Every structure is written in structure tokens, then in C-alpha cells.
């Protein structure tokens, strides 16, 4: 039995998207990372950082959302969300790490400082700096996506779920993707998948 810990508006959403694409049954424990329940001793045994998401699948306890998505894809979705050639696999890693290291911190800053934090804790300077940090990687991605629907091969893969997950924070933080036309078109199409809608409404 698969159990996913983490409320749907947290990074657990990237995993819910994957579970929906793979059509897997799972139990969902909606731990809210802003509430004390994340520090419950039973949960700390699974995730000593007191963060979400955490996945339990049989004997495996796994934290770090991208590791969870790689695991689920390879174990249950080799023909759906993964690829056969090592060269393509390398591209899945490349675009996932590009999303996490080049863009995710800025995307998280946008949603925190435009939406999630109390008004008094929001910083216009952090918003401005986050928007600036996104410019260069988005230009690179925009050029790459010209004429393409997906990041790796001509197929929807876990790299697209991971990228869209990171960008969903920017969208929640009112980031305007329209100057990056290829990225905006790509993102709209990925987020319009019925499985994504399902992941948002669990
Ligand atoms: N690197 C971790 C980050 C997990 C993370 O920061 N999760 C947030 C919610 S999206 C959280 O649990 N925050 C509460 C905290 O850090 O105490 C991952 O990618 O899974």
C-alpha cells in the first residue's frame, strides 16, 4: 500500500499529479506543514526534517519530492512517465535539477511573499529579486521549448510533472509567464491535463 503524507497545496501536489497519471491507489494523509501536526513523533520518525511530502511504499520510506517522483515513475510507470535510453534519462535529471536548483527557490519566494505569508511579513525586495532570478533560466527554457510540447523526447515524462510543479508556485505567486511564450504555452498544456486537475482537488 502506498501512503502519501502532505496536504495537496504543498509539494505533495507534484506527487499527487504523478499518482493520478499512473492511476495508482494510495492513502493520503493531509499533513499541513504550517501546523504542529508535522512535529508529531510518529511523523518525525518518517521525516525528521518535519517537512512534506513523505512517501511510504511497503518497507520504503522516502522523502524529497523529486526522489519520490523518480521512484514512482521507474517502479510503476516505466512505460508511461520514464524513458528507455540513458541519454533521455539524463535529460529527465537535467530538467528536474534545472527546475529545483535554478528556479524553485524563487518560485517559492513568490508564493510566500505574494500570497502565503501574513501581509506584514511580505517583502517587495524579495519579490523583485525572485522575479529577476527567474529571467535567465526562463529565457533558456523558452528557447529550448520552441516547437516542443515536452521537455524530454516527444513524450510526456516525469520531467514535465516536476517542472510544472515548480512553476505552480510561481503561478500561485502571480508570476506572469506571458513574455516567455513557449513556456506559457507548454505550461498551460501540462496544467490542463485532467490528472493535474484531479491532483488539485483530492
Ligand atoms: N527539499 C524538500 C523540501 C520540502 C519542503 O520544504 N516542504 C515544505 C512544504 S512544500 C515544508 O514541509 N515546509 C515546512 C518546514 O520546512 O518546516 C523536498 O523537495 O521535498
What's this model, at a glance?
Helices cover 56% and strands 7% of the residues.
Highlighted features:
202 residues, alpha+beta, Glutaredoxin, Glutathione S-transferase Yfyf (Class Pi), Chain A, domain 2, four-stranded mixed β-sheet, 8 helices, 4 strands, binds glutathione
Give the C-alpha Rg.
Answer: 17 Å
**First CA to last CA: what distance?**
18 Å
In the CATH hierarchy, the architecture of the largest domain is Up-down Bundle
The CATH C-level name of the largest domain is Mainly Alpha
Contiguous helical run count: 8
Output the helix-strand order: EHEHEEHHHHHH
Predict the CATH topology of the largest domain. Answer: Glutathione S-transferase Yfyf (Class Pi), Chain A, domain 2
The biggest sheet amounts to: 4 strands, mixed
In helices, the fraction of residues equals 55-70%
Q: Quick one: how many beta strands?
A: 4
In round numbers, the mean pLDDT is: 97
Q: Within the largest sheet, what's the order of strands?
A: 2-1-3-4
Structural description of this entry:
Helix 1 (12-22) links the parallel strand 1 and strand 2 (27-29). This protein has helices at residues 12-22, 41-46, 65-76, 86-116, 124-144, 158-172, 181-191, 194-200, and strands spanning 2-5, 27-29, 54-57, 60-63. The protein has eight helices and four strands; from the N terminus they run βαβαββαααααα. It folds into two domains: 2-76, 3-Layer(aba) Sandwich (Glutaredoxin); 86-200, Glutathione S-transferase Yfyf (Class Pi), Chain A, domain 2. The protein is an alpha+beta fold. Helix content is 56%, strand content 7%. Glutathione is lined by residues 10-11, 33, 50-52, 64-65.
Amino acid at each position: 500500500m502506498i501512503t502519501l503524507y502532505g496536504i495537496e497545496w504543498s509539494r505533495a501536489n507534484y506527487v499527487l499529479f504523478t499518482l493520478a497519471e499512473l492511476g495508482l491507489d494510495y492513502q493520503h494523509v493531509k499533513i499541513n506543514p504550517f501546523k504542529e501536526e508535522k512535529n508529531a513523533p510518529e511523523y518525525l520518525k518518517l521525516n525528521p526534517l518535519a517537512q512534506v511530502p513523505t512517501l511510504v511504499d511497503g518497507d520504503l520510506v522516502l522523502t524529497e519530492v523529486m526522489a519520490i517522483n523518480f521512484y514512482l515513475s521507474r517502479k510503476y510507470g516505466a512505460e508511461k512517465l520514464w524513458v528507455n535510453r540513458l541519454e533521455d534519462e539524463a535529460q529527465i535529471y537535467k530538467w528536474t535539477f534545472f527546475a529545483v536548483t535554478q528556479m524553485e527557490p524563487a518560485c517559492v519566494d513568490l508564493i510566500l511573499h505574494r500570497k502565503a505569508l501574513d501581509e506584514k511579513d511580505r517583502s517587495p525586495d524579495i519579490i523583485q529579486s525572485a522575479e529577476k532570478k527567474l529571467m535567465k533560466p526562463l529565457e533558456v527554457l523558452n528557447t529550448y521549448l520552441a516547437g516542443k510540447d515536452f521537455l524530454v523526447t516527444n513524450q510526456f515524462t516525469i520531467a514535465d510533472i516536476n517542472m510544472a510543479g515548480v512553476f505552480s508556485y510561481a503561478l500561485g505567486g502571480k508570476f506572469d509567464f506571458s513574455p516567455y511564450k513557449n513556456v506559457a504555452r507548454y505550461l498551460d498544456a501540462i496544467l490542463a491535463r485532467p490528472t493535474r486537475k484531479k491532483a488539485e482537488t483530492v
